[in-house]
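Researcher: Quick test of sequence recovery. Tokens follow.
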């Protein structure tokens, strides 16, 4: 192995040691077919990474976009994002299961999805010209003290979003996002994790909703961005524009069984191909257990369906909408939390929790310094 390739491998392994606190979309499932997503922690270190529908981004640390960058193009599809080289075909009315590799229980917040029509192919679109309209937005259910991110975790780190039946056929960018609010009680404390996927929507719909430029979706002082979630929150206003007609705040959440794997369609190339169902160890197909009491667990590959829950999204211009998640009978399997993160003895990884009321884990940081966001949460952040 060449010195260059060895150095790249070492860099990849070092990066992997610091990204466990956050997550990214690993694959999407459409009608039982699983399509690989863009992996920011491994693709940049490959000489010939796969061509996928997920957009390329430079968040190799699984990091976030801060509110001070809401007017910057990084908020559109993540840091220095460029269009994916392929797209996935889906029919209006279909539901897409978006699978994450992991997500920390402490990073509570909403789950939001947008679509933006491409003038031509999405593989060559100018992201700053995309105008996004919201197709789902789930937030907080005060009655059960449940966040949409909790539902994501309980359903094996998967989120189900429905493409509205009335949307006109064409090429679209799906913008999928969660916003971590554990430090949002102070200015510039919220953490946005946008990810984009190219879709080709088929069907007979005629709706072409107007949208909002990605750099105008949010403001740093929006009610759902600058918010203290530890101070007896009675409701929560999901940030961004209102849902379009024909969309719902959240469909009943469940996992999608994978029956085959598919290859995204490259414009001018072969149409998407599918293969036999994945063997054990490939794409996850069922849900993981609900989180344990440890704020930052290390979660193994999901294997079983989790218990049901309820989620409510509150937005301006419409009343709270509650949807029940159907129960399942599968018994959960609990992944053991890691008490001492890698990167140093008793040291927390970058972006991991390092303090706060009732915190009993590591208080030293393997990288960066421990910053107190509020009495309940301190986090390892870059020292710069």
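Model:
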């Amino acid at each position: 192995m060449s010195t260059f390739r060895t150095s790249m491998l070492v860099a990849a392994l070092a990066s992997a040691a610091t990204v466990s606190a956050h997550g990214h979309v690993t694959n999407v499932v459409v009608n039982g077919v699983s399509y690989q997503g863009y992996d920011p922690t491994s693709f940049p270190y490959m000489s010939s990474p796969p061509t996928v529908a997920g957009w390329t981004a430079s968040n190799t640390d699984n990091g976030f976009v801060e509110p001070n960058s809401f007017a910057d193009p990084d908020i559109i599809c993540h840091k220095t994002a460029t269009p994916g080289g392929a797209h996935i075909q889906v029919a209006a009315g279909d539901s897409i299961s978006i699978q994450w590799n992991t997500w920390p229980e402490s990073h509570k917040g909403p789950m939001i999805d947008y679509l933006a029509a491409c003038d031509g192919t999405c593989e060559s679109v100018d992201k700053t010209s995309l105008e996004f309209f919201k197709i789902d937005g789930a937030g907080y259910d005060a009655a059960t003290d449940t966040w949409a991110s909790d539902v994501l975790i309980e359903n094996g780190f998967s989120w189900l979003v429905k493409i509205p039946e009335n949307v006109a056929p064409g090429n679209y960018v799906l913008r999928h996002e969660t916003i971590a609010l554990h430090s949002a009680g102070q200015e510039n404390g919220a953490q946005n994790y946008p990810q984009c996927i190219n879709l080709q929507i088929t069907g007979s719909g005629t709706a072409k909703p107007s949208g909002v430029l990605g750099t105008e979706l949010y403001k740093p002082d929006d009610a759902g961005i600058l918010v203290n979630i530890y101070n007896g929150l009675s409701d929560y206003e999901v940030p961004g524009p209102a849902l379009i007609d024909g969309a719902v705040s959240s469909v009943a959440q469940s996992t999608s069984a994978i029956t085959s794997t598919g290859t995204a369609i490259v414009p001018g190339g072969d149409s998407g191909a599918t293969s036999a169902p994945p063997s054990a160890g490939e794409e996850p197909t069922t849900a993981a257990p609900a989180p344990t009491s440890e704020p930052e667990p290390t979660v193994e590959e999901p294997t079983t369906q989790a218990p049901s829950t309820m989620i409510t999204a509150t937005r301006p211009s419409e009343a709270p909408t509650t949807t029940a998640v159907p129960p399942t009978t599968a018994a959960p399997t609990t992944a053991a939390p890691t008490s001492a993160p890698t990167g140093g003895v008793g040291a927390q990884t970058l972006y991991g929790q390092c303090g706060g009321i009732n915190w009993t884990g590591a208080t030293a940081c393997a990288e960066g310094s421990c910053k107190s966001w509020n009495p309940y949460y301190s986090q390892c952040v870059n020292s710069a």
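Confidence is low (pLDDT under 50) at residues 1-20, 278-345.
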